[in-house]
Design a protein that fits this description.
By secondary structure, the protein is an alpha/beta fold. It folds into 2 domains: 189 residues, Isopropylmalate Dehydrogenase; 138 residues, 3-Layer(aba) Sandwich (Isopropylmalate Dehydrogenase), CATH 3.40.718.10. Helix content is 40%, strand content 16%. It has a 12-stranded mixed sheet, sandwiched between helices. Strand 8, helix 9 and strand 9 form a beta-alpha-beta unit. Helix 8 crosses helix 9.
């Protein structure tokens, strides 16, 4: 039996509801079955406002989704209606946003859903409601009870990138960067590429922190003192890691063909190339959790929420990737 995926509501003022319905409308294109954890009433109102014919079907648990997915969008109710209007977030909805995430995690961990797919959240609204985690990734690690940090990978058709430091100001990211963090990320990524992506001998390209990977110390010593020793440790562990490499020449087409994932030293060093190359199709994958989690690689898009303009491509890619990863794990 192929289990359905659990998809969270995300920020109700954003585009999560409409891209979920748009993905369901494209189900004939090989979109895997999923259960959306949301408020059925808000979805029905949104579909009516957009003029979309979407049959919303409330179900008690994700396992029932597969039976109805062909004719209706299966929705597991979160128990209340969000207050936000499209494009206008309301901090009072934070409880529902977090409840949807917690419910989805519980369903996946219980074995009633194959994997977790999350719609974008609005961290500002959550912070105003007392949310204490830097972001979605860190919150999921806390829910999983993980003692070690999760690793964020952004994956597209032609590029996979991993920021070693994630949601930190640039000055803080430089201060926080350590060889141990690079080695940890490299080990997690290499294991995931083998287990979940079917790559028997993955190659990791490791970006330098400074321009031109530091110019042999002329533009800073971090690449000599931190990055190069981490690359050596990864190679000693049997991982084909290469670097530190100049980040400005790592991401053109010919260079990308030489590795399976790029380890980057800070958030934008990783996310700028992937979003430039594959903005609509890239997927956020969280590695190092005891369950599979993917997400669209975009935000809440308040400026177009509720207008039916948001493309579901990244969500569809996230659903397909989660299903493929779950299938590989089930077969192993």
């Amino acid at each position: 039996m192929v289990l359905p995926l659990a998809l969270t509501m995300g920020e109700p003022a954003g585009i999560g509801g409409e891209i979920a319905m748009a993905a369901w409308l494209r189900r004939a294109e090989g979109v895997p079955a999923f259960c959306l954890i949301d408020d059925p009433g808000r979805l029905a109102r949104l579909a009516a406002a957009l003029g979309w014919e979407v049959d919303i079907r409330a179900i008690a648990e994700p396992g029932l989704a597969s039976a109805v997915f062909g004719e209706a969008l299966p929705v597991m109710p979160i128990g209340a209606a969000p207050r936000a209007a499209p494009g206008k977030p309301d901090a009072a909805d934070a409880t529902l946003v977090l409840r949807a995430i917690e419910t989805a995690v519980a369903e996946v961990r219980s074995g009633r859903a194959a994997a977790l797919v999350t719609n974008p959240i609005n961290k500002d609204a959550l912070y105003r409601a007392g949310f204490k985690h830097p972001g979605h990734t860190e919150y999921l690690a806390a829910l999983a009870g993980s003692e070690k940090p999760a690793v964020m990978m952004l994956a597209g058709a032609d590029l996979r990138v991993v920021p070693v430091t994630i949601h930190l100001a640039l000055r803080e990211a430089v201060n926080a960067l350590t060889a141990a963090a690079i080695v940890y990320a490299g080990r997690v990524v290499a294991a995931a590429l083998r287990r979940d992506f079917g790559i028997a001998a993955p190659v990791l390209a490791v970006a330098g922190l400074n321009p031109h990977a530091g110019e042999n110390g002329g533009l800073g010593h971090e690449d000599i003192d931190i990055v190069a020793p981490a690359v050596a440790q990864l190679r000693d562990a049997g991982i084909d890691a290469r670097g530190p490499l100049a980040a400005d020449t790592m991401f053109h087409a010919a260079a990308r063909r030489g590795y399976d994932a790029a380890l980057c030293m800070y958030h934008d060093q990783a996310l700028i190339p992937i979003k430039t190359i594959d903005f609509d199709g890239a997927v956020n994958v969280t590695l190092g959790l005891p369950f599979i989690r993917t997400s669209p690689d975009h935000g809440t898009a308040f400026d177009i929420a509720g207008q039916g303009l948001a493309r579901p491509d990244s969500l569809i890619a996230a659903l397909r990737m989660a299903a493929a990863m779950a299938a590989r794990r089930a077969a192993s």
